[in-house]
Specification:
The structure is a homodimer of 354-residue chains. Chain A contains 13 helices and 10 strands. Chain A has 354 residues and is α+β, with helices and mostly antiparallel strands. Chain A folds into 2 domains: 251 residues, 2-Layer Sandwich (Creatine Kinase, Chain A, domain 2); 89 residues, no CATH class. Chain A has an 8-stranded antiparallel β-sheet. A two-stranded antiparallel ribbon of chain A has the order 6-7. In chain A, a hairpin with a 5-residue loop joins strand 3 and strand 4. In chain A, helix 8 crosses helix 9 and helix 9 crosses helix 13. At the A-B interface, helix 9 of A face helix 9 of B.
Chain lengths: 354, 354
């Protein structure tokens, strides 16, 4: 039996699972693909989108590599469900705005998701906790190959895969990692490091992707160019750079613990204090404070708390998940109060000795 | 036997005593006086200052109204003692810089203090918790009269009492109240109210007087003009205005508790949380957070804590008092750590239910 959306909402998100501890939280690869001899979604009419979407869903239902996926038509999803999917990074802000003729296909373990008729006909992504771009690429590549045999993709010998936006033409590949750089933030070096990444042709985004703020010192780092390098080259280069950034972060943490331990203790203790006492907590502040607690766990300062519990709290305090938990629509003020209550009850039992 | 400075340091400060609860924390009146036929301290040489200081101390030792005062020569006080006296508002920033020929005379209950050879030969002040300008004036006036009989003051029929700075000529009187305006701060009205006071010819200063910041939403409000109004007129006018400001503050608090109770609870709970968890706390932040807790006590949100305990904590976490408690000189970083420990141990036993 295929998974239902209610189950999906209760499960941990792939990008923030139990194993996503450490500096590199998760690795993700997505491919942009389009059907040959068909207009891009932005140019096709709604009926044409519905027809293409139906064909693609049929083709994907037959794929062994998708493991009994969940099919979700965008026009059947309410605002809260869209928000939930967005918060799990299963859909983009753009797909969240779409209706009839667009869909999301999610593999049983939520590690693979396919957006149908977003900007391109197909946006295929796979995610794994930790730094594992190569194996994530292998999984995406296998699904891509299986799907291409069924439907055929728009491809040019000179340019590679054709996409709606020229920035994706070629490999159509975007590889990204989510990093937690709170050590570099505390030492004041994070901006310099991130600027350096820009000069290497990488893009830096916030926790929830394009156009979102970097709450909680969590940054998505990804390749910008999709032309002139092979898929494996892109992935090897990004992996090497991410390892270097991770090393910078580890060094910053070691220096902090060596020479500024009280300052780190203070930051972690204050985060815990506010999280367990606030009566009003907005989503950005909650992520920022949970990031402080996360650093405390990773440095061994906070003992009775797991990264999995923090990840879950970050996710379940997002507006969509929060309203799902409450079972009703909440105003922003109500959400801030409900969020504070939720965080308090989850963390107060933990206790804190620092 | 006269009080020693060690006893003075351990006692509660007059301006922050047990009874200083509510919107008006304390009332203060000070008089500027100069000896007739003697150069102002800024014009007199050091030897002349020493001679005048000796005469004044002798005269004051005879005053019944000073109740066995403590005599402190400024040149015999170390940095920490000067800081302690400053934090108790017993001396000004200017006297704290003085040496030989300047002194402080403090009455046994610390409610009356006389600075000798600050800007003027005599700066006589009295303080009481709450709004009691009239009775404070009566006390100052009695001492002033008794002292004038002994030494004789520089006085002009046209101008009144003569002072080193023209802004004090006339009555030489400055009356001030310390107010805790955290309700108006939370409603965003405090700036408008304080600007209004400026238009009424009143001066607004921070907790520790001229040139200090208004930490903890505590403001000193005082008359600026010392000419053209009698002492009792100045005091009656200031009392009337302060009552009005206090009413504004009470109204703001009532409105907050009626329509934004969660927000107030949140502010108070966060203050308590950080005070009981921080490992590093600077002096300004400590006062700000203690102000939040003070509001909580006054609104009945925080039950197991007295205003006296908060006042004492504000005072004992100031740099001078802190170093007195530690029994040694502390660097600013050490102070911030020691302060955090002190506050934590004082408040953690209180518990908090909000």
């Amino acid at each position: 039996m295929p998974m239902m959306i209610d189950e999906l909402v209760k499960a941990p998100a792939a990008w923030m699972s139990r194993r996503g501890a450490g500096v590199v939280i998760s690795s993700r690869v997505r491919l942009a693909r389009n059907l040959k001899d068909a207009a891009f979604p932005g140019w096709a009419g709604e009926d044409e989108c519905v027809r293409l979407c139906g064909n693609l869903k049929q083709a994907m239902a037959r794929l062994e590599s998708l493991q009994h996926p969940l099919f979700l038509d965008m026009d059947k999803l309410g605002d809260t469900d869209r928000a939930v999917l967005r918060e799990r990074n299963l859909i983009s802000a753009e797909l969240a705005e779409k209706g009839r003729g667009s869909a999301l296909v999610v593999a049983g373990d939520q590690h693979v998701a396919v957006m149908v008729n977003e900007e391109d006909h197909i946006r295929l992504q796979a995610v794994r906790p930790g730094l594992h771009l190569r194996s994530v690429w292998n999984r995406v590549n296998a699904i891509d190959t299986e799907l291409e045999e069924q439907v055929g993709f728009a491809f040019s010998r000179e340019l590679g895969y054709l996409t709606a936006c020229p920035s994706n033409v070629g490999t159509g590949l975007r590889a990204s990692v989510m990093m937690h750089l709170s050590g570099l933030k505390l030492t004041g070096e994070v901006d310099a490091v991130l600027n350096g990444l820009g000069k290497l042709g990488l893009a830096v985004r916030g926790l929830f992707g394009e156009g979102t703020e970097a709450y909680g010192n969590m940054f998505q780092i990804s390749n910008q160019s999709t032309l002139g390098e092979s898929e494996t080259e892109i992935i090897a280069r990004l992996t090497a750079i991410v390892k270097e950034v991770a090393q910078h972060e580890e060094n910053a943490r070691a220096r902090l613990m060596e020479s500024r331990q009280t300052y780190v203790l203070d930051q972690v203790a204050r985060a815990y204090a506010v999280l367990t006492h606030a009566h009003v907590l907005n989503s950005g502040e909650a992520i920022d404070l949970l990031s402080g607690l996360r650093l405390g766990v990773e440095l061994g300062i906070v003992k009775q708390l797991s990264i999995a519990a923090i990840n879950e709290t970050v996710l379940f305090t997002q507006p969509g998940h929060l309203q799902r938990l409450a079972g009703k629509t909440l105003s922003p003020d109500e959400r801030d109060m409900y969020r504070a209550e939720l965080v308090k009850s989850r963390l107060q039992q933990v206790g804190f000795q620092a």
